[in-house]
Design goal:
The protein has 1 helix and no strands. The chain has one domain (1-47). It is 13% helix and 0% strand. The protein is elongated. By secondary structure, the chain is largely without helices or strands. The chain has one helix at 3-10.
Length: 60
């Protein structure tokens, strides 16, 4: 198996219609290496915190 074919098989969950890697919209701008595929529903990310979420003990 050629190197590019093996790479394509490994990354097939991340590849879009144009053959390029595509990440989840929340992971696209993230600097951390825990990126998820655009095909997956983002369930939990240790680095992501919504701007709408309230921090515990922070009232004001």
């Amino acid at each position: 198996m050629s190197r590019s074919k093996k790479w394509r098989l490994e990354w097939s969950f991340f590849l879009g219609e144009n053959g390029r890697r595509k990440y989840n919209k929340l992971c696209k701008g993230c600097v951390h290496p825990c990126k998820q595929s655009f095909r997956a529903v983002l369930i939990a990310c240790p680095h992501y915190q919504s701007a709408r979420s309230k921090k515990c003990g922070n009232r004001g």
